[in-house]
Design a protein that fits this description.
Layout lengths: L5 H15 L9 H24 L14 H21 L4 H20 L16
Helix pairs in contact: 1-3, 2-3
Amino acid sequence: MPEPDMLKELFRKQDELNRRIGVDCANLSEEDQQKWILNYCRAMSQELAELTDSVPWKWWAKYQTFDKQNARVEVVDLLHFLISLAQVLGMSAEDFFNIYVQKHQVNQKRQDSGYSIKDENDNRQIGN
């Protein structure tokens, strides 16, 4: 039996969950798209704060401990919202993968060149 496409499965599961809570990312008006982009960005900011709190970041405090289990859960929470955000923007798992690969190539070229000059023009063809 062939291995499932894990990224497609994550996108499918997230769409299922979003619909269950009343958000149909594929059929949002432009106004609702903007609203949900902001909602998901805010949610990701909160999840990132929760991830930060899983790691002893207060160098002056001795009471803190590293909660690796919680950190792992927070990373997955971030992914839930990131996939939802991608879906609001009309991205499929294939789109996400292809754009990731294109952006990865840009990042590699930037590193190869020393990335001494910031030029966003190398991003212009990504996803087109």
